[in-house]
Amino acid sequence: MEHASLxxxxxxxxxxxxxxxxxxxxxxxxxxxxxxxxxxxxGKSTLLRLVNRLVEPSDGSIFFGDREITRLKGRxxxxxxxxxxxxxxxxxxxxxxxxxxxxxxxxxxGHGFVSSMTMRFTDEERALAIEALDRLDMAPKALQxxxxxxxxQQQRVAIARALVQNPRIMLADEPIASLDPxxxxxxMDALARINxxxxxxxxxxxxxxxxARAYCDRIIAMREGAVMFDGSATQLTDDVVADIYGAExxxxxxxxxxxxxxxxxxxxxxx
Length: 271
Prior knowledge:
alpha/beta, Rossmann fold, six-stranded mixed β-sheet, 9 helices, globular, ATP-binding
């Protein structure tokens, strides 16, 4: 699997008169665990969708190594979306299908039209899906309908589905926002393990400061579409947050921390 740097240069996205992402320039080396924080409407979700081209940029460029992602079209663009796996807050599972089939859906991007429509998978792909589920402690649920799982279990199935894409980058858009603290910890621990064991670059949008500080090598703070801070967890002090967001913003983060405080179970510890 290719490991390369992800580079954003003056990336901008406008929706009418609103600029959701404003002149963002970042270089993310391979294998980094990056947390993106900011208040609602700061541009976090749009930034991730720009990276995997679910949203088209108004200006600027995206490179993965020496490959310009912003110029990709057709099959090359579909391949990039497979290589740049996306995990959503809403899980996006087919609830009537069993867990194993939901994970195997992550393989469809590499299938032809007929096998995609008939959901035909090889024994090798099934073994890959079971292995991914086992890494997320979900293999015993393989034949259970996805709709019967808890929210935290569904999110771990979504991560397994992303894993079987054999991605080069993993994007997670507020993956723990709707989870209780226990399940939030399990999901963040899983992402941290994947980052550490596979050397996979992970970009995750988060809504609490303590989670970002506990798990992320690097934290990017956004406000009104622009990057206001880019540094390590130790550099993101409460004083810095207050400078960026004001006392009201810091109070909002503190309230979120109180309601969804989590701590890593192993190895990834606060810097």
